[in-house]
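hey m, so remember when u said the C-alpha coordinates were messed up on ur end? i reran from scratch. heres the input so u can diff it against urs
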Amino acid sequence: MLTDALPRISLAHLPTPLEELPRLRAALGGGPRLWIKRDDQTGLATGGNKARKLEFLVAEALERGADTLVTVGAAQSNHCRQTAAAAARVGLRCALVLSGHPPPRPWNGNLLLHVLLGAELHWVGDGERSDAAAAVVEGLRAEGARPFFFGVGGSVPTGAAGYVAAVEELYAQLQARSLSLDRIVFASGSAGTQAGILVGVQALGMETRVEGIDVSAVSALRAEILALAAIAQLIRPGTPVVYGMSSSVPDMRSGVNLAGAVEIGLLGAAVAQLARRCGLPCLMSSGTDAHAPGAQAMMERLMTFLFPALAGIDLINLTTLETKMTLSLEQWVIEEEVLNAVERLLQGITVDDESLALDVIQEIGPKGAFVTVDHTLRHFREELLTPNLFHRQPRDAWEAAGAPDMQTRAREQARRILAEHHPPSLPDDVAVQLDAILKGVEADRG
Protein backbone atom coordinates (compact mmCIF):
# COMPACT_ATOMS: atom_id res chain seq x y z
CA MET A 1 0.00 0.00 0.00
CA LEU A 2 1.02 3.60 -0.54
CA THR A 3 1.01 4.32 3.20
CA ASP A 4 2.91 1.24 4.39
CA ALA A 5 5.91 3.33 5.47
CA LEU A 6 3.84 5.18 8.09
CA PRO A 7 2.73 3.81 11.47
CA ARG A 8 -1.00 3.13 11.67
CA ILE A 9 -3.47 1.69 14.17
CA SER A 10 -6.98 0.39 13.53
CA LEU A 11 -9.71 2.76 14.72
CA ALA A 12 -12.27 2.82 11.90
CA HIS A 13 -14.62 0.17 10.52
CA LEU A 14 -13.13 -0.26 7.06
CA PRO A 15 -13.77 -0.52 4.22
CA THR A 16 -16.76 1.80 4.26
CA PRO A 17 -19.53 0.95 1.77
CA LEU A 18 -19.63 2.32 -1.77
CA GLU A 19 -23.30 2.78 -2.66
CA GLU A 20 -25.09 3.96 -5.80
CA LEU A 21 -27.74 6.71 -5.54
CA PRO A 22 -30.29 5.94 -8.30
CA ARG A 23 -33.18 7.84 -6.69
CA LEU A 24 -31.08 11.00 -6.28
CA ARG A 25 -30.07 10.69 -9.92
CA ALA A 26 -33.72 10.41 -10.93
CA ALA A 27 -34.68 13.38 -8.75
CA LEU A 28 -32.05 15.43 -10.56
CA GLY A 29 -33.58 14.52 -13.90
CA GLY A 30 -31.07 11.88 -14.98
CA GLY A 31 -27.47 12.59 -15.92
CA PRO A 32 -24.39 10.68 -14.75
CA ARG A 33 -24.56 7.78 -12.31
CA LEU A 34 -23.95 8.91 -8.73
CA TRP A 35 -22.09 6.98 -6.02
CA ILE A 36 -21.39 7.79 -2.39
CA LYS A 37 -18.55 6.58 -0.18
CA ARG A 38 -20.14 6.10 3.23
CA ASP A 39 -17.43 7.53 5.47
CA ASP A 40 -20.18 8.46 7.89
CA GLN A 41 -19.99 4.76 8.81
CA THR A 42 -16.40 4.61 10.04
CA GLY A 43 -17.84 3.68 13.42
CA LEU A 44 -15.63 5.65 15.80
CA ALA A 45 -18.00 7.52 18.17
CA THR A 46 -20.86 7.46 15.63
CA GLY A 47 -18.54 7.76 12.62
CA GLY A 48 -17.07 10.42 10.37
CA ASN A 49 -14.16 11.03 8.07
CA LYS A 50 -11.70 12.11 10.80
CA ALA A 51 -11.36 8.48 11.95
CA ARG A 52 -9.19 7.79 8.89
CA LYS A 53 -6.79 10.61 9.76
CA LEU A 54 -6.69 9.60 13.42
CA GLU A 55 -5.47 6.09 12.55
CA PHE A 56 -2.20 7.70 11.45
CA LEU A 57 -2.09 10.60 13.92
CA VAL A 58 -2.66 8.44 17.02
CA ALA A 59 -0.11 5.91 15.76
CA GLU A 60 2.46 8.71 15.42
CA ALA A 61 1.60 9.96 18.92
CA LEU A 62 2.13 6.50 20.40
CA GLU A 63 5.38 6.05 18.49
CA ARG A 64 6.65 9.33 19.96
CA GLY A 65 5.75 8.23 23.48
CA ALA A 66 2.96 10.78 23.96
CA ASP A 67 0.41 10.32 26.72
CA THR A 68 -1.99 13.15 25.78
CA LEU A 69 -3.70 14.13 22.53
CA VAL A 70 -4.30 17.87 22.09
CA THR A 71 -6.34 19.37 19.26
CA VAL A 72 -8.56 22.35 18.48
CA GLY A 73 -12.02 22.94 17.05
CA ALA A 74 -15.46 24.41 17.56
CA ALA A 75 -17.62 23.40 20.52
CA GLN A 76 -19.62 20.97 18.34
CA SER A 77 -16.62 19.76 16.32
CA ASN A 78 -16.86 16.27 14.81
CA HIS A 79 -13.07 16.19 14.72
CA CYS A 80 -12.83 16.85 18.46
CA ARG A 81 -15.48 14.21 19.19
CA GLN A 82 -13.58 11.54 17.25
CA THR A 83 -10.24 12.62 18.75
CA ALA A 84 -11.66 12.15 22.25
CA ALA A 85 -12.98 8.72 21.23
CA ALA A 86 -9.63 7.71 19.72
CA ALA A 87 -7.80 8.77 22.89
CA ALA A 88 -10.22 6.74 25.02
CA ARG A 89 -9.79 3.74 22.71
CA VAL A 90 -6.00 3.59 23.16
CA GLY A 91 -5.81 4.82 26.77
CA LEU A 92 -4.49 8.33 26.18
CA ARG A 93 -5.50 11.54 27.88
CA CYS A 94 -7.30 14.08 25.65
CA ALA A 95 -7.33 17.88 25.87
CA LEU A 96 -9.65 19.80 23.54
CA VAL A 97 -9.15 23.54 22.92
CA LEU A 98 -12.57 24.86 21.92
CA SER A 99 -13.43 28.23 20.36
CA GLY A 100 -15.36 30.86 22.28
CA HIS A 101 -16.90 30.62 25.74
CA PRO A 102 -18.73 27.65 27.32
CA PRO A 103 -22.42 27.72 26.34
CA PRO A 104 -25.17 27.50 28.97
CA ARG A 105 -25.93 24.03 30.30
CA PRO A 106 -27.36 21.51 29.71
CA TRP A 107 -24.93 20.62 26.92
CA ASN A 108 -25.90 18.42 24.01
CA GLY A 109 -24.55 17.03 20.72
CA ASN A 110 -20.82 16.67 20.29
CA LEU A 111 -20.08 18.90 23.27
CA LEU A 112 -21.85 16.42 25.54
CA LEU A 113 -20.01 13.55 23.86
CA HIS A 114 -16.65 15.29 24.46
CA VAL A 115 -17.37 15.13 28.19
CA LEU A 116 -18.74 11.58 28.14
CA LEU A 117 -15.61 10.41 26.31
CA GLY A 118 -13.41 11.85 29.07
CA ALA A 119 -11.89 14.84 27.30
CA GLU A 120 -10.61 17.88 29.19
CA LEU A 121 -12.15 21.06 27.76
CA HIS A 122 -10.22 24.33 27.48
CA TRP A 123 -12.12 27.35 26.20
CA VAL A 124 -10.39 29.98 24.08
CA GLY A 125 -12.69 32.83 25.13
CA ASP A 126 -12.00 36.04 23.22
CA GLY A 127 -8.38 35.17 22.40
CA GLU A 128 -6.69 33.37 19.51
CA ARG A 129 -7.21 29.63 19.29
CA SER A 130 -3.58 28.98 18.33
CA ASP A 131 -2.32 30.93 21.35
CA ALA A 132 -4.68 29.05 23.66
CA ALA A 133 -3.56 25.70 22.23
CA ALA A 134 0.11 26.61 22.73
CA ALA A 135 -0.65 27.55 26.36
CA VAL A 136 -2.43 24.23 26.95
CA VAL A 137 0.49 22.27 25.50
CA GLU A 138 3.00 24.17 27.64
CA GLY A 139 0.83 23.69 30.73
CA LEU A 140 0.69 19.94 30.14
CA ARG A 141 4.45 19.78 29.74
CA ALA A 142 4.86 21.71 32.98
CA GLU A 143 2.75 19.02 34.67
CA GLY A 144 5.09 16.34 33.34
CA ALA A 145 2.73 15.15 30.60
CA ARG A 146 3.87 14.32 27.05
CA PRO A 147 1.36 16.06 24.76
CA PHE A 148 0.99 15.42 21.03
CA PHE A 149 -0.69 18.34 19.22
CA PHE A 150 -2.35 18.40 15.81
CA GLY A 151 -4.42 21.18 14.28
CA VAL A 152 -8.04 21.59 13.29
CA GLY A 153 -9.49 18.67 11.36
CA GLY A 154 -6.31 16.65 11.75
CA SER A 155 -5.25 18.36 8.54
CA VAL A 156 -1.50 17.90 8.81
CA PRO A 157 0.66 15.76 6.48
CA THR A 158 0.36 12.67 8.67
CA GLY A 159 -3.42 13.06 8.86
CA ALA A 160 -3.72 13.55 5.10
CA ALA A 161 -2.28 10.05 4.68
CA GLY A 162 -5.64 8.75 5.92
CA TYR A 163 -7.24 9.80 2.65
CA VAL A 164 -4.39 8.47 0.56
CA ALA A 165 -5.33 5.11 2.07
CA ALA A 166 -9.03 5.89 1.49
CA VAL A 167 -8.42 6.36 -2.24
CA GLU A 168 -6.64 3.00 -2.35
CA GLU A 169 -9.69 1.46 -0.67
CA LEU A 170 -12.02 3.16 -3.14
CA TYR A 171 -9.87 2.07 -6.09
CA ALA A 172 -10.11 -1.58 -5.00
CA GLN A 173 -13.92 -1.28 -4.75
CA LEU A 174 -14.11 0.24 -8.22
CA GLN A 175 -11.89 -2.46 -9.67
CA ALA A 176 -14.08 -5.17 -8.13
CA ARG A 177 -17.16 -3.67 -9.85
CA SER A 178 -15.40 -2.80 -13.14
CA LEU A 179 -16.22 0.87 -12.54
CA SER A 180 -14.34 4.09 -13.16
CA LEU A 181 -15.10 7.56 -11.86
CA ASP A 182 -15.18 10.81 -13.81
CA ARG A 183 -15.08 12.97 -10.68
CA ILE A 184 -14.68 12.76 -6.93
CA VAL A 185 -16.60 15.58 -5.23
CA PHE A 186 -16.40 16.43 -1.51
CA ALA A 187 -16.49 19.31 0.96
CA SER A 188 -13.08 20.90 1.60
CA GLY A 189 -12.54 22.92 4.76
CA SER A 190 -9.18 22.44 6.47
CA ALA A 191 -8.08 20.68 3.21
CA GLY A 192 -6.47 17.57 4.71
CA THR A 193 -9.02 15.28 3.05
CA GLN A 194 -8.51 17.01 -0.29
CA ALA A 195 -4.73 16.75 -0.01
CA GLY A 196 -4.89 13.00 0.65
CA ILE A 197 -7.33 12.38 -2.19
CA LEU A 198 -5.16 14.33 -4.62
CA VAL A 199 -2.09 12.29 -3.69
CA GLY A 200 -3.94 8.98 -3.88
CA VAL A 201 -5.52 9.70 -7.27
CA GLN A 202 -2.20 10.77 -8.77
CA ALA A 203 -0.23 7.89 -7.25
CA LEU A 204 -2.67 5.28 -8.59
CA GLY A 205 -2.86 6.87 -12.03
CA MET A 206 -6.62 7.35 -11.85
CA GLU A 207 -8.03 9.53 -14.64
CA THR A 208 -10.45 11.13 -12.21
CA ARG A 209 -11.01 14.82 -11.62
CA VAL A 210 -10.81 15.83 -7.95
CA GLU A 211 -13.22 18.62 -6.98
CA GLY A 212 -13.25 20.03 -3.48
CA ILE A 213 -16.17 22.31 -2.66
CA ASP A 214 -14.67 25.19 -0.69
CA VAL A 215 -16.37 25.60 2.69
CA SER A 216 -13.62 27.83 4.11
CA ALA A 217 -11.14 30.39 2.85
CA VAL A 218 -7.88 29.45 1.05
CA SER A 219 -8.66 25.71 1.19
CA ALA A 220 -7.33 25.07 -2.33
CA LEU A 221 -3.96 26.57 -1.41
CA ARG A 222 -3.87 24.55 1.79
CA ALA A 223 -4.81 21.34 -0.05
CA GLU A 224 -1.92 21.76 -2.49
CA ILE A 225 0.59 22.37 0.29
CA LEU A 226 -0.61 19.46 2.42
CA ALA A 227 -0.66 17.16 -0.63
CA LEU A 228 3.01 17.85 -1.26
CA ALA A 229 3.80 17.42 2.43
CA ALA A 230 1.92 14.10 2.47
CA ILE A 231 3.91 12.88 -0.56
CA ALA A 232 7.15 13.76 1.24
CA GLN A 233 6.09 11.78 4.33
CA LEU A 234 5.02 8.77 2.25
CA ILE A 235 8.37 8.68 0.47
CA ARG A 236 10.50 9.40 3.53
CA PRO A 237 8.69 9.60 6.90
CA GLY A 238 9.97 12.41 9.06
CA THR A 239 11.14 14.57 6.14
CA PRO A 240 11.26 18.22 7.29
CA VAL A 241 8.58 20.27 5.58
CA VAL A 242 8.19 24.04 5.22
CA TYR A 243 4.65 25.35 4.66
CA GLY A 244 5.02 27.89 1.88
CA MET A 245 3.17 30.06 -0.61
CA SER A 246 4.16 31.92 -3.74
CA SER A 247 0.77 33.18 -4.88
CA SER A 248 -0.25 36.14 -6.97
CA VAL A 249 -3.50 37.94 -7.67
CA PRO A 250 -4.54 39.36 -11.06
CA ASP A 251 -5.16 42.90 -12.13
CA MET A 252 -8.71 42.40 -13.39
CA ARG A 253 -8.31 45.27 -15.86
CA SER A 254 -5.44 43.63 -17.75
CA GLY A 255 -5.06 40.06 -16.50
CA VAL A 256 -1.48 40.76 -15.38
CA ASN A 257 -0.31 38.83 -12.31
CA LEU A 258 0.54 41.15 -9.44
CA ALA A 259 3.25 40.72 -6.83
CA GLY A 260 2.58 43.81 -4.73
CA ALA A 261 -1.18 43.70 -4.17
CA VAL A 262 -2.42 44.11 -0.62
CA GLU A 263 -4.18 40.73 -0.96
CA ILE A 264 -0.74 39.07 -1.14
CA GLY A 265 -0.16 40.35 2.37
CA LEU A 266 -3.51 38.98 3.51
CA LEU A 267 -2.73 35.57 1.96
CA GLY A 268 0.65 35.59 3.67
CA ALA A 269 -0.99 36.23 7.03
CA ALA A 270 -3.42 33.38 6.35
CA VAL A 271 -0.54 31.06 5.46
CA ALA A 272 1.21 31.92 8.72
CA GLN A 273 -1.91 31.06 10.73
CA LEU A 274 -2.58 27.83 8.80
CA ALA A 275 1.03 26.73 9.18
CA ARG A 276 0.84 27.30 12.93
CA ARG A 277 -2.17 24.97 13.03
CA CYS A 278 -0.01 22.28 11.43
CA GLY A 279 2.99 23.01 13.64
CA LEU A 280 5.13 23.69 10.54
CA PRO A 281 7.55 26.53 9.76
CA CYS A 282 6.28 28.78 6.98
CA LEU A 283 7.46 31.11 4.25
CA MET A 284 5.95 33.38 1.59
CA SER A 285 7.01 36.01 -0.93
CA SER A 286 6.72 39.77 -0.63
CA GLY A 287 6.87 41.68 -3.91
CA THR A 288 6.23 44.92 -5.73
CA ASP A 289 4.98 45.80 -9.21
CA ALA A 290 6.71 49.20 -9.26
CA HIS A 291 9.08 49.82 -12.18
CA ALA A 292 11.54 51.87 -10.13
CA PRO A 293 12.35 52.65 -6.50
CA GLY A 294 9.94 55.08 -4.93
CA ALA A 295 6.68 55.52 -3.08
CA GLN A 296 4.81 52.69 -4.85
CA ALA A 297 7.61 50.20 -4.21
CA MET A 298 7.80 51.09 -0.52
CA MET A 299 4.03 51.00 -0.04
CA GLU A 300 3.65 47.63 -1.78
CA ARG A 301 6.59 46.16 0.09
CA LEU A 302 5.10 47.22 3.39
CA MET A 303 1.61 45.90 2.47
CA THR A 304 2.93 42.48 1.45
CA PHE A 305 5.45 42.22 4.28
CA LEU A 306 3.93 43.69 7.43
CA PHE A 307 0.76 41.56 7.70
CA PRO A 308 2.57 38.18 7.37
CA ALA A 309 5.27 39.33 9.77
CA LEU A 310 2.70 40.29 12.41
CA ALA A 311 0.95 36.92 11.86
CA GLY A 312 4.15 35.04 12.72
CA ILE A 313 5.62 34.05 9.34
CA ASP A 314 9.08 32.50 9.74
CA LEU A 315 10.73 33.44 6.43
CA ILE A 316 9.78 36.05 3.82
CA ASN A 317 11.34 36.01 0.36
CA LEU A 318 11.77 39.59 -0.81
CA THR A 319 11.42 39.65 -4.59
CA THR A 320 12.68 42.44 -6.85
CA LEU A 321 11.00 45.29 -8.69
CA GLU A 322 8.54 45.02 -11.59
CA THR A 323 7.07 41.66 -10.50
CA LYS A 324 10.53 40.05 -10.16
CA MET A 325 11.83 41.41 -13.49
CA THR A 326 14.05 44.34 -12.40
CA LEU A 327 16.91 44.45 -9.90
CA SER A 328 17.70 47.70 -8.09
CA LEU A 329 20.48 48.11 -5.53
CA GLU A 330 18.89 51.35 -4.35
CA GLN A 331 15.63 49.53 -3.66
CA TRP A 332 17.47 46.91 -1.60
CA VAL A 333 18.95 49.66 0.56
CA ILE A 334 15.52 51.27 1.00
CA GLU A 335 13.98 47.92 1.90
CA GLU A 336 16.52 47.46 4.66
CA GLU A 337 14.88 50.46 6.30
CA VAL A 338 11.46 48.83 5.87
CA LEU A 339 12.73 45.57 7.39
CA ASN A 340 14.31 47.40 10.32
CA ALA A 341 11.04 49.22 11.01
CA VAL A 342 8.98 46.01 10.87
CA GLU A 343 11.49 44.25 13.13
CA ARG A 344 11.11 47.08 15.63
CA LEU A 345 7.32 46.73 15.50
CA LEU A 346 7.60 43.00 16.15
CA GLN A 347 9.71 43.65 19.24
CA GLY A 348 6.75 45.44 20.78
CA ILE A 349 6.90 47.32 24.08
CA THR A 350 8.78 45.69 26.92
CA VAL A 351 7.00 45.96 30.24
CA ASP A 352 9.10 44.99 33.24
CA ASP A 353 10.70 46.66 36.24
CA GLU A 354 13.68 47.87 34.22
CA SER A 355 11.64 49.39 31.40
CA LEU A 356 9.03 50.97 33.68
CA ALA A 357 11.83 52.60 35.70
CA LEU A 358 9.54 53.72 38.49
CA ASP A 359 12.54 54.41 40.72
CA VAL A 360 13.98 56.78 38.09
CA ILE A 361 10.64 58.55 37.68
CA GLN A 362 10.40 59.05 41.43
CA GLU A 363 13.97 60.29 41.63
CA ILE A 364 13.71 62.81 38.78
CA GLY A 365 10.28 64.11 39.72
CA PRO A 366 7.77 66.11 37.65
CA LYS A 367 10.13 69.01 36.83
CA GLY A 368 13.21 67.00 35.94
CA ALA A 369 14.58 65.81 32.59
CA PHE A 370 15.27 62.21 31.67
CA VAL A 371 17.47 62.69 28.63
CA THR A 372 20.78 62.68 30.53
CA VAL A 373 20.14 60.00 33.16
CA ASP A 374 22.01 56.69 33.00
CA HIS A 375 18.81 54.72 32.39
CA THR A 376 18.09 56.64 29.18
CA LEU A 377 21.68 56.28 27.96
CA ARG A 378 21.55 52.54 28.58
CA HIS A 379 18.33 51.93 26.65
CA PHE A 380 17.66 54.55 23.98
CA ARG A 381 19.57 52.72 21.22
CA GLU A 382 17.52 49.56 21.60
CA GLU A 383 14.21 51.37 22.17
CA LEU A 384 14.39 54.03 19.44
CA LEU A 385 15.02 52.99 15.85
CA THR A 386 17.35 55.35 14.00
CA PRO A 387 16.88 54.99 10.20
CA ASN A 388 19.89 55.54 7.95
CA LEU A 389 18.04 57.07 5.00
CA PHE A 390 15.37 59.23 6.60
CA HIS A 391 16.11 62.96 6.79
CA ARG A 392 14.73 64.25 10.09
CA GLN A 393 16.58 67.54 10.38
CA PRO A 394 14.88 70.92 9.86
CA ARG A 395 14.07 71.98 6.28
CA ASP A 396 16.92 74.49 6.08
CA ALA A 397 19.44 71.75 6.94
CA TRP A 398 17.89 69.46 4.31
CA GLU A 399 17.99 72.21 1.67
CA ALA A 400 21.58 73.05 2.59
CA ALA A 401 22.49 69.39 1.92
CA GLY A 402 21.04 69.66 -1.60
CA ALA A 403 17.51 68.49 -0.74
CA PRO A 404 18.31 64.86 -1.55
CA ASP A 405 15.37 62.50 -1.93
CA MET A 406 15.40 58.99 -0.51
CA GLN A 407 16.39 57.33 -3.80
CA THR A 408 19.45 59.61 -4.04
CA ARG A 409 20.52 58.80 -0.52
CA ALA A 410 19.91 55.09 -1.19
CA ARG A 411 22.09 55.22 -4.31
CA GLU A 412 24.92 56.83 -2.33
CA GLN A 413 24.58 54.19 0.37
CA ALA A 414 24.62 51.37 -2.20
CA ARG A 415 27.81 52.73 -3.79
CA ARG A 416 29.42 53.10 -0.38
CA ILE A 417 28.61 49.48 0.48
CA LEU A 418 30.02 48.25 -2.84
CA ALA A 419 33.23 50.22 -2.29
CA GLU A 420 33.79 49.43 1.39
CA HIS A 421 32.26 46.05 2.14
CA HIS A 422 34.58 43.06 2.14
CA PRO A 423 32.70 39.77 2.61
CA PRO A 424 34.49 37.27 4.85
CA SER A 425 36.13 34.31 3.15
CA LEU A 426 34.67 30.84 3.56
CA PRO A 427 36.42 28.68 6.13
CA ASP A 428 38.85 26.27 4.46
CA ASP A 429 36.90 23.18 5.50
CA VAL A 430 33.66 24.57 4.01
CA ALA A 431 35.37 25.39 0.73
CA VAL A 432 36.78 21.86 0.58
CA GLN A 433 33.33 20.37 1.19
CA LEU A 434 31.78 22.51 -1.57
CA ASP A 435 34.52 21.49 -4.00
CA ALA A 436 33.85 17.83 -3.17
CA ILE A 437 30.11 18.28 -3.80
CA LEU A 438 30.74 19.93 -7.17
CA LYS A 439 33.16 17.20 -8.21
CA GLY A 440 30.58 14.57 -7.22
CA VAL A 441 27.91 16.24 -9.35
CA GLU A 442 30.28 16.48 -12.32
CA ALA A 443 31.18 12.80 -11.91
CA ASP A 444 27.49 11.80 -11.85
CA ARG A 445 26.94 13.68 -15.10
CA GLY A 446 29.79 11.76 -16.69
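this time it looks ok to me. The first helix runs from residue 22 to 27. if urs says something different then somethings off w ur setup not the seq
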